[in-house]
Specification:
eight-stranded antiparallel beta barrel; Porin; alpha+beta; about 50% strand; about 15% helix; single chain
């Protein structure tokens, strides 16, 4: 049990270090934009996966900078069954599909064997300055039991800036 706790702390420290390095590299190339994007986002997504709680979910976010934001989300009809919080790094807004990366923590009420770290890789297309379309692959890795339980899902949705 003690060894699992040490591994979890090491994994979390590695993730934090990776985020800091990636953020500094992306920030170095970021150019200020004349058009201001509104800081708050609200999105609705449809997901696939073995757990029904992933089928329809929401996400609320706050843009920290041009290339990063924090967000929370969960199941639309039963938010207590699945919820998460993520930190996101993304490229600057443009008119093409742009990559983004999310890392955070998640919890499932019905699937206690899948709790822990949430990784997302995706592409986002700006519709206009008020909305986007997102396509992402999400992976949840269990860090609570030390066993290798995981969940993967593919999600499609959109968000609005306000």
């Amino acid at each position: 049990m003690h060894n699992t706790s040490r591994k979890s702390k090491g994994l979390i420290n590695s993730i934090i270090g990776s985020i800091i390095i990636l953020h500094s590299h992306i920030s170095a190339g970021a150019q200020p934009k004349p058009e201001t994007i509104k800081p708050y986002t609200a999105g609705i997504y449809i997901g696939t996966g073995r757990l029904e709680t992933n089928n329809e979910y929401f996400e609320l976010g706050y843009r920290i900078s041009e290339i990063s934001r924090v967000a929370i989300g969960g199941n639309i009809t039963h938010p207590n069954e699945w919820s998460y919080g993520v930190y996101e790094l993304h490229s600057e807004a443009n008119n093409t599909w742009s990559p983004f990366y999310q890392v955070g923590l998640t919890q499932y009420a019905m699937a206690k064997d899948v709790q822990g770290v949430l990784f997302s890789l995706g592409y986002r297309r700006d519709i206009n300055k008020h909305g986007t379309v997102d396509l992402m692959l999400r992976y949840v890795g269990d860090i609570t039991s030390g066993e290798r339980h995981s969940e993967t899902m593919l999600s499609l949705g959109g968000s609005m800036n306000f």
